[in-house]
């Protein structure tokens, strides 16, 4: 009886480790969504499964509310100008 319980705990721990480390991020997010629907804390489950919490949490970790970056073709602020020279290699 005790052996069965100990083996079941070891298998459960191995499954938890596998699911937090080796599953694709989309599957881990789906697991977190399912656990949150069951009443568990989203922030704790997101940390455990190493995924960003959803946009409903309001944490701002996804960067969707941040100000956009300036375009890449603007001149640098220090006044230096750089040109890109395109070269064609003939072989």
Q: Would you kindly provide a written description of the structure presented here, covering whatever features stand out?
A:
The protein is mainly α and 91 residues long. Helix content is 44%, strand content 0%. It contains three helices and no strands. The model has no long low-confidence stretch (mean pLDDT 79).
Series of secondary-structure elements, N-terminal to C-terminal: HHH
Structural class by SSE content: mainly alpha
Q: Could you give the distance between the termini? A: 75 Å
Helix content: 40-55%
Main features:
91 residues; mainly alpha; elongated
Put the structure in a nutshell.
By secondary structure, this protein is mostly helical.
Layout of strands and helices, then pairs:
Layout: H1 2-21, H2 25-37, H3 42-48
